[in-house]
Amino acid sequence: xxxxxxxxxxxxxxxxxxxxxxxxxxxxxxxxxxxxxxxxxxxxxxxxxxxxxxxxxxxxxxxxxxxxxxxxxxxxxxxxxxxxxxxxxxxxxxxxxxxxxxxxxxxxxxxxxxxxxxxxxxxxxxxxxxxxxxxxxxxxxxxxxxxxxxxxxxxxxxxxxxxxxxxxxxxxxxxxxxxxxxxxxxxxxxxxxxxxxxxxxxxxxxxxxxxxxxxxxxxxxxxxxxxxxxxxxxxxxxxxxxxxxxxxxxxxxxxxxxxxxxxxxxxxxxxxxxxxxxxxxxxxxxxxxxxxxxxxxxxxxxxxxxxxxxxxxxxxxxxxxxxxxxxxxxxxxxxxxx
Length: 338
Hints:
It is built from two helices and 19 strands. The chain is mainly β. It comes from Bionectria ochroleuca. It is a single-pass type I membrane protein.
């Protein structure tokens, strides 16, 4: 038997399957109504079914949810009533930072934390939090060489405080400068995508509509608590700004294999260029073929030595000796070229 030829064929099949595994996976989404907030924000009873507000927050049903006004010593927050329990998710937020002064501060934050609705000193939210914080910091305290406004991520363990004096330098997970995000001429947005233990990605839109800039993309991020709430908060000190939330749109993400011949397949006309790119991972078929390549030589030797019984007859068409084998109770025939 030409074992080398068979191994070559199996290796080619393995390579094709590994490539196909990356292309077949497509990320689909389902809207999370419990974590979505759009105008008019409030129901007929002038309350929100899924979110709570507190502090100095003001709701204008036709325009925005204002966490702080352009006045000193303000702090406000907005938090979901139910935890964000999805394993993989995406949250897209439209916001606006504006004010009438040349000097301004301090910024606002997006939260995925175990704590909810607790006012504090970290952009209006409690310190020593447990979970993820995304900070849009507009006032520079002490970070030489860094351009502000600055957007950064921090994972809190429930014990480590935010280093406010150094603008979070010692606790920063990742970040980027975002000059122009305040008083932008287009709708300013952020989009946070999370795949559990695989990816944490933040994208910003503030220079041009539909032009998303990647702020950071982290592989194998720390795990977010199983019970964590989605929220937003902002604060002002001696300097101030308006910090507005315009809309919040949350989605549950899941993997779905593409349908054969679908127009939405990669490279087709129906491809969505704004779709989420999943973290790459090998398919189960690739692993199946890999195991065959590893085990085939040893298995074949066992067949020849233990399980295979030669027959005396000849195949009249192929003119090859035919060997009948029985492997784990299944009869099969192998044709061995003479």
